[in-house]
C-alpha cells in the first residue's frame, strides 16, 4: 500500500498520523520513512482459515498493530505461518494449550477467527487467560451467549471487540457523519441487503452446529448492523420471512430471509439476506433532505457510494488494515471506539434472535427488549 493511501486512511480515521507514522502533516511526494511507534498492539490470530489469512496479509501494512502469534489446531499451518511471518515458537498455541497464553507478555490481544459457534467458547478461554479479545462476526450463536462473553471479559478486566470492519471504512464513516450532521435530514427509510451464492455444500457454514444459523448469521448481520448505523437508532420490533428454494443444501440453516426492523422514530428498515444468489449487496438510507447509497456496501470492496450531492470520493482502503490499526489506536491511545465493542455484537444478536423467533411464529411481529 502506498504512503499517500496510508495517509488518507489515517486521516479518515482521525489517527494522529504525524506522530504515529512519521509522515509529515501535509502529504507530499517524499514522505519520511516509517518510524515504528514505541508501542504496537501484538496480535495472535486464532483459527488460521481463509479470513485469518486475509487479516494477516492486511496486517503487513499496519502501523500500530503487528502479528505476533498464532493459535491453530493444524500443526502444518503453524509451521508455515511461523516461517512466513517470523513468529517465534513461544508465541504459537493449539486449542489445548491456549490457556498458557496468559503467561506470555508478548501477546496483547487474541483475534478469534474460528467458525461462529466456537466464538463463545474461545472468547471465554481468552478472557480467562487475561488477554484482550477481538472476535469475528457473528459474535455468538445468540444473545445469551453474547451476554456471557461480555460478562466474562468484564470480570477478567479485558477489552472485548467485534470484527465490524465497516465501522472503519471511509464511505461508511462518511455516511454516518452525514446522518449525524443532519445532512440527510430526518431519516425516513432504509433498504439494506447482503447475500451471496454459497459454494461447497460440505462447508461448516451450512452446518448448524458450527455456524449457528445460515445467511442471516453470516451476512444478514451486515444489513442489520447497517440499518442501525444508517438510522442511529435501535430497533424496537422485528418481522421476518424465510424462503427456501434448495431444502437439500440448506437443510440445517436458513437460505434466504427478508426482515423488517421498526425503529422508535417510526422509520422501517426493509432488509434481506441470502446464501443462494449473487448481486445482493446495498445500503440505501433516505432522509427528507437527501439520501446516501453504498453499493457494494459491505464486502471487501471497493465500496462505492453516491448521495444526493453526487458520487462519494472516499479513498479505497484495505478494510482489515484499517480495522487492526483502529483497534490498536483504541487500546494503545484511548481513541474513541466507533461502535465495535462486544456490546454492539450483542445488540445485533438480540435482533437476530428476534428475526428467527418471528420466522418460527409465521412472520409475527416480535418486540425487542432493551439491552
Ligand atoms: P475457515 O473455515 O476458512 O477458517 C476457520 C478456521 O477455524 C479453520 O481453518 C481452523 O483453523 C479453525 N477451526 C477450529 N475448529 C474448527 C472446526 N471445528 N471446523 C472448521 N474450522 C475450525 O472460515 P473463515 O475464515 O471463512 O471464517 C472464520 C470466521 O470469520 C467466521 O466467524 C466468519 O463469520 C468470519 N468471517 C468474517 C469476515 C469479515 O469480513 N469480517 C469474512 C469471512 C469470515 P486451524 O486449522 O488453524 O485450527
Rg (CA only):
21 Å
Bound molecules: NADPH dihydro-nicotinamide-adenine-dinucleotide phosphate
State the helical fraction: 25-40%
State the major sheet. 9 strands, mixed
Mean pLDDT, nearest integer?
92
User: What is the strand content?
Assistant: 15-25%
Question: Which features does this protein show?
Answer:
nine-stranded mixed beta sheet; disordered N terminus; binds NADPH dihydro-nicotinamide-adenine-dinucleotide phosphate; globular; 371 residues; six-stranded parallel beta sheet; alpha/beta
Compact description:
The protein has 371 residues and is α/β, with parallel strands linked by helices. The chain contains 11 helices and 15 strands.
How do the helices and strands line up, and which of them pair or pack?
Blueprint: H1 3-13, H2 17-21, E1 41-46, H3 50-59, E2 65-71, H4 75-85, E3 92-93, E4 109-112, H5 119-128, E5 132-135, H6 143-156, E6 160-162, H7 170-180, E7 187-195, H8 208-211, H9 215-231, E8 237-243, E9 256-262, E10 268-274, E11 280-287, E12 291-294, E13 305-307, E14 310-311, H10 319-333, H11 342-360, E15 366-367
Parallel strand pairs: 1-2, 1-4, 2-3, 4-5, 5-6, 7-10
Antiparallel strand pairs: 7-11, 8-9, 8-15, 9-10, 11-12, 12-13, 13-14
The structure holds NADPH dihydro-nicotinamide-adenine-dinucleotide phosphate (NDP).
NADPH dihydro-nicotinamide-adenine-dinucleotide phosphate is lined by residues 47-52, 72-74, 77, 113-116, 118, 136-137, 163, 165, 204, 210, 218.
